[in-house]
Amino acid sequence: MDSLESLTRQINGAKDLDSIVRTMKAMAAANIGQYERAMESLDDYWTNVSLGLVAYLKDFGLDTSDTKKNGNTKKGEKSICAIVFGSDQGFVGQFNDSLSQYVQDSLATHDGKLEIWTVGVRVPLLLADMGMTVTKEFDLPNSINAITALIGSILVQVEENQENGSIDEYYLFHNHLVDEGTYEQEKLRLFPLDVRWRKEKAKLKWPTQKQPEVIGDSTKLIRSLIREYLFVTLYKTCTESLASENLSRLNAMQRAEKNIEELLDEIGHTYHRLRQSSIDEELFDVVSGFTALKKDIY
């Protein structure tokens, strides 16, 4: 049976843990806000870049879904690269587990060459346990300002692969916010810009009545537009993943806070019951002693 001293230590420990959980919950909530603002700030620019690409493709009739074929690649087989955005820190519930399972299910039917790039240290371990080989790992940015450096590193690697024709398609796997308090896994095709992408972007309306026209070096323009599109898409994906990670951590901290409150309530009841029992015993001893002393006097 627990003593009053051990129960006091448990109560103090639970209160200290509750203080840590509250701090982590507040930090997660603040982080969600800044990442959501970062996503919103990119919306207009992302739309403008998409409009530029659509206008260029419509004007020149370029088919960007064509990929550079590797002579050693068999018909029907494609070499793809999956870029998976996970987390570094724990206390995120099923954030990494659900994402890893989603990646495995999505890539299960792929027969060609497969490369997996990961962002964050936890996802590679989970994918390795599932029998998948991670070919490249990137460090997860710990702030808004560090995202640009990460995206630059990924784009450098993408450009190197495009030059030697080693990869046909790139896909992004990440968690993204769907409704208030929830997130889900998403697979997004990064490159090349396929027919589905063109159909979706064709719905965008040019903001003026005048038809756009290309001025200057068209090759340099399309390269710049594609580079900006890839950068903004990767940036949005990273911020969505970080926002979802903090949402998952916030939910986990809320559950932990509730469990701690229930634990404190249970330990508190036990402490007060044991304390009252101890007081009753002391009172009984005092009354018994007084009664015995009274008999001796009279």
Explain what the structure shows:
- This protein is of the alpha/beta class.
- It has two domains: 4-9 and 253-297; 21-252, ATP synthase, F1 complex, gamma subunit (Pyruvate Kinase, Chain: A, domain 1, 3-Layer(aba) Sandwich).
- It has helices at 4-60, 95-107, 122-129, 147-164, 195-201, 218-297, and strands spanning 80-85, 114-119, 136-138, 169-179, 182-191.
- It has a five-stranded mixed beta sheet, sandwiched between helices.
- The longest helix has 80 residues, at 218-297.
Summarize the structure.
The protein is an alpha/beta fold. It has helices spanning 4-60, 95-107, 122-129, 147-164, 195-201, 218-297, and strands at 80-85, 114-119, 136-138, 169-179, 182-191.
Topology:
Elements: H1 4-60, E1 80-85, H2 95-107, E2 114-119, H3 122-129, E3 136-138, H4 147-164, E4 169-179, E5 182-191, H5 195-201, H6 218-297
Parallel strand pairs: 1-2, 1-4, 2-3
Antiparallel strand pairs: 4-5
Straight-line distance between termini? 42 Å
Q: Indicate how many domains the architecture comprises.
A: 2
Total helical elements: 6
Strand order of the largest sheet: 3-2-1-4-5
The counted number of beta strands is 5
Unreliable spans are: 62-74
Say what the CATH topology of the largest domain is: Pyruvate Kinase, Chain: A, domain 1
| Mean pLDDT across residues | 82
User: Which strand-content bin applies to the residues?
Assistant: 5-15%
Helix content: 55-70%
Query: Would you list the SSEs in sequence order as H and E?
Result: HEHEHEHEEHH
State the name of the first-level CATH class of the largest domain.
Answer: Alpha Beta
Backbone structural class: alpha/beta
CATH superfamily of the largest domain: ATP synthase, F1 complex, gamma subunit
